[in-house]
Amino acid sequence: MINKVLEDSYRRYAAKRPLSAEQHARARTFLPSGTTRSVLDFDPFPFTVASAAGCRLTDIDGHVYLDYLGDYSVGLAGHNPEAVREAVTPVLENGWSFGTVAAEEAEVARMLCERFASMDLVRFTSSGTEANLVALSLALKSTDRNKVLVFDGGYHGGFLSFSRGRPSLNVPLDAVICDYNDLESVRQAFDQWSEQIGCVLVEPMLGSGGRIQAAPDFLKGLRTLCNENGSVLVFDEVQTSRMSYGGAQALLGVRPDLTTLGKYIGGGFGFGVVGGAETLMLQLARGGERSYDHSGTFNNNRFSMAASLAMLRDVLTPTSLDGLFARGENLRKHADVLLRRHGFQATGWGSLIGIHPTDVAVSRALDLAGADRRPVELLFHELLERGIYIGKSGFVTLSLPQTPQTDDLFLSALESSLQVVSAVGR
Q: Can you give the residue ranges of every domain in the chain?
């Protein structure tokens, strides 16, 4: 039954978007699946956006969507935010690719080090993916070890995805995969490879693996185990740095050795940073006992530097981030009440929410492994029909231009969409 209803929803979707259908057909001629990001590929085809402003998208067929995905959290400031636009306009006027130092980069570095207590020094990259690759390299070089301990469901960029049973285009790391929120599995790994595990790479909230919040003592336990075994603790805060002015680590009271950031700090431009303890970061300085080159043409590109300076100075303030966190907690609570009436649930933390088609308690990626995802796909299409855009996996992110009034619109659309999904059955 649900397969037939999904096919009907595909036909209804396609009939309303002839221009996006034509665009996608042309794109498939030159792009695998017609996209450049696997996460954007959904049936029958993704719509093509013509313009965006605030928390709304307009596609080339004229449909307007209330955006509750925010480009998978990149769009925290909304689309075309004024502060960023004003910051990059002088770059357009004065030039942007000089092959030398960008005027803003030292100031961006200062602001990051002052904001994140664990950062003595920082290094810029073009993306969160690259930041995590640099962090892993620094950790393994400093420890002279070869293994990286990661978690099932962990996603740290396009080449660092560690979900069991799902193939990915990873770099050839020697990875030990443990279960999130399961300290005993980590202890067992250290018992077996204590002299080989150079670092632990972890998200303070498991992001793509299900928006699963860390248990109260899990991250503190990782800190203790890393201390005991001489391993480097790396926090991937590419998503969770939005939780407070000092990121998730400030809220949780856990200090990592290295931290990676990306996404929204660049205001929609390519941006990444790795920062941490001076002893680790000085491996990138010239003339040290351990000194390694780290290059990247666009590490300090002027658009990203100007945009991130505006974001850190004018947008990502304690007041705005605390308000976003509180609104996210409130929205998730109300969404969860609606979802549980229909056999779904909402996971997450702060302004990041996951929707899952199960009422089983979720603390690790394995708890979601056997879930039938078709109800979420149908829910995704029903929300699109009502002008609400979320991630095809049930990923919801809040952004600053949204309001309690748009949250009410989201909840209303969610309630009516769930009624349709429940009527279909599974």
A: 2-76+319-424, 82-315
